[in-house]
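Progress narrative, work stream C.
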Amino acid sequence: MKEYKMRRGEYLEERIPDMESTVEEYFGPIAGTEEYKGSDLFVIAEPDNPVFERIVVGTVEYSGKKDKLGVEFYERDPTELGPDELEAAADAVDAKNDFLLEATGRDAKARRDSLKRSVEDDPDHDL
């Protein structure tokens, strides 16, 4: 599960006031919920895009700290995809990036840079 922070001074509930409908709009119908760190995240068991097998996404709540976006994309093996499904791969990447940009206010480059900084700042992380 990856967790994403919002930009400084922004909050997830302000960026996406209705997480359930936003998730359904981007990825398909919600089949249920799954617990992660005490928060219930939405499970999309049959995503609209055939590249995804399953998606778990939602707000990870922290006491005394800003909430984060928790996301886990389970993708099918590209060797198992047919020609039509391979064409959907670009749409899958766009859907992920567009959703993460809307939720966090950070584009892919900013998210990578933030991840690098968090790894560099972690004294327990061995490189």
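Work stream C, second folded protein:
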Amino acid sequence: MSDQGQTTTSVPPQAFWPARLPYAALAGVRTRRMTAIALDLIAITIIFVAVLMVLIVLGIVTFGLTWFLIPPLYPAIALFYNGLTISGWRMATPGMRAMDLEMHTTDGGRVSFLTAAVHAVLFYLSWTILTPLILLVSLISTDKRCLHDIVAGVVVTRRA
């Protein structure tokens, strides 16, 4: 028999990046993430109030036309806050930086703005709809990823 025309491909045994993470990279991640989320929500609220004050003044000048921007303002600020900070060179929101965390894609790369924005949308949707499921998935998964992390293809680790 001849081996001509047959090709073999091999898959690396650990092609999935979080499977190779040391324990120290995941130690205390859940608790730190909860604190980071609280810090980030405070920062987003401060930005929201500042922009809201500007919109209120502009609303008086424009006879209320800019007030139509107020309802989607908080989600838009949160989306850009997460997207810009996580896709930035520090790979973390200010709250995550304060808690010594960073976010990567599952292959170990940097998170793009679009992925970070999708992650934020999934977080806010899942937080309002599926809260118990998020926590259960995080407690069961070996890499401490929440449901929205798995769907977005990211992993949060301690800074090295």
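Confidence is low (pLDDT under 50) at residues 6-16. No further action is required on this item.
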